[in-house]
Amino acid sequence: MPNFLESEQGSDRLPEGLGEALVQRQFLLNDADLNEVARCRGPVNRLGFAVQLCTLRSYGFFLPNLMNVPDEVRDTLASRLGLLSIGLDGYPSDGNTRHTYLERLRATRGTCAAEKSSANDSQPI
To answer: Which of 45, 94, 110, 113 has a CB 3.0–4.6 Å from the CB of 40, allowing a cystine?
Structure first.
């Protein structure tokens, strides 16, 4: 059962060398996904949101950093969104925007935020 946490307890990146067949299967966007992605402002936000959505669905966690997204994942999703394959260094990292996007992703996938185990762990995700 996937743990729907930002991945301080698991991996912090997608596996290397996913291969085209796996990327084609795991990084699909249905009509509902495309509608949710379209709510994001700007190409980098749309692409980053799509990466997070597919990562949550396929691997069960949010990526804390989108800088290491494999090229084949970024290229595949960009093509599916009708975007140029751009770097994700401009994807929001400020707490408020990131929190809003993560909550939208949780709502889209029907998951809820996990409780932190102590007050010392209370970093925004």
So the answer is: 45
